[in-house]
Specification:
single chain, mainly alpha, 16 helices, 0% strand, globular
Length: 329
């Protein structure tokens, strides 16, 4: 798509990037749950390393083929991208750990607290303000999450701790990603590549030091074709998800990206009732899920139908990015 076409269809790009992220997030959640729960793969750190390594390889090959462009590594990159690598690895590790510990529906419900955290961080770090109806939508989503979580008959202290930490890391990562995307020298692909490049080896060392890597090496499922397929699919989808998050944050606000992640949970939550085998049904939980999704759908309608000041601000951000990209070309 040319710069002129991009300028004519900012709303289309906002929506398309959001749908791409929602689809990617849905698929990787199901695939990760299959690998970690159905196949009982013992090493979520090893799975995370595989996803990071796949991202590095794919982007490096794309750079060598001149399909994408981002700057070569130098010491200034570390300062430009900090603290994203730390937030990213925290988000990745706690996300995989909570996926293993919680049922799919409860995982997706408790992820809703990311939205409230993101709104607070955007107001504090990016100095953004939000119209009242957007705040009401966020409150409805979080309220629904509280209702659903209050009836969780499979309560797991460790799982809840991981998921709330994951919410905090995700919110901070989203807001700082939006902030770093303003650095046109790094660009979308530079942010994505150097995030993974900087943290993949420390994560691998941590996996080895904790015995997580040894558990992965001793896993007896490596000879099964179905497991290998799911594991490789998870690694590839890890790259796709990270790219979709960057793309959605590029064209939308950090809060919108977070809410889109919540919307895709409509499918994940209800599919999780039938897939995974660890969901315990209750009407209170189902009601809470429905409240969450209703708030998220209203937020999405208000945002993508361009009826809020925040949406207009998002359009302006896209125009700024387009102008700067056209100057580069």
């Amino acid at each position: 798509m040319s710069v002129e076409q991009t300028a004519e269809h900012p709303a289309f790009l906002k929506l398309l990037s959001a749908l791409f992220y929602a689809g990617s997030s849905f698929l990787i959640t199901v695939v990760n749950k299959t690998v970690l729960t159905s196949f009982r793969f013992p090493s979520y750190l090893c799975l995370g390393v595989g996803q990071m390594f796949t991202t590095i390889v794919v982007l490096y090959l794309a750079k060598m083929s001149r399909l994408v462009h981002f700057p070569d590594f130098d010491r200034s990159i570390l300062l430009k991208i900090f603290p994203l690598p730390l937030l990213y690895v925290g988000n990745h590790v706690t996300g995989l750990a909570s996926t293993k510990k919680l049922s799919l529906p409860m995982f997706t419900v408790l992820r809703k607290f990311t939205i409230l955290m993101t709104m607070m961080l955007e107001a504090y770090i990016l100095r953004k303000t939000f119209p009242k109806h957007i705040v009401y939508c966020v409150v409805a989503i979080v309220f629904g999450a509280v209702v659903a979580a209050s009836s969780d008959l499979a309560f797991d202290v460790e799982g809840y701790t991981f998921i709330l930490l994951n919410d905090a890391f995700t919110a901070a990562s989203g807001v700082y990603t939006k902030k770093k995307l303003g650095d046109q020298e790094l660009g979308k692909y530079g942010v994505l590549f150097y995030n993974s490049f900087i943290i993949v080896f420390p994560t691998l060392l941590a996996s080895a030091a904790t015995g997580d890597l040894h558990k992965a090496a001793m896993f007896n499922g490596w000879t099964k074709g179905t497991f290998l397929f799911c594991f490789l699919m998870s690694c590839f989808m890890g790259f796709v998800l990270m790219y979709s998050i960057i793309l959605c944050s590029y064209y939308n606000s950090a809060l919108t990206t977070t809410v889109v992640g919540a919307i895709k949970n409509v499918a994940v939550a209800y599919v999780g009732i039938f897939v995974g085998g660890d969901y315990i049904f209750s009407w209170k939980n189902f009601l809470g899920l429905s409240i969450c999704m209703s708030g998220g759908l209203v937020y999405s309608y208000l945002t993508f139908s361009n009826k809020t000041p925040a949406s207009n601000a998002g359009l302006q951000e896209v125009k700024v990015h387009i102008t700067e990209e056209s100057r580069k070309d």
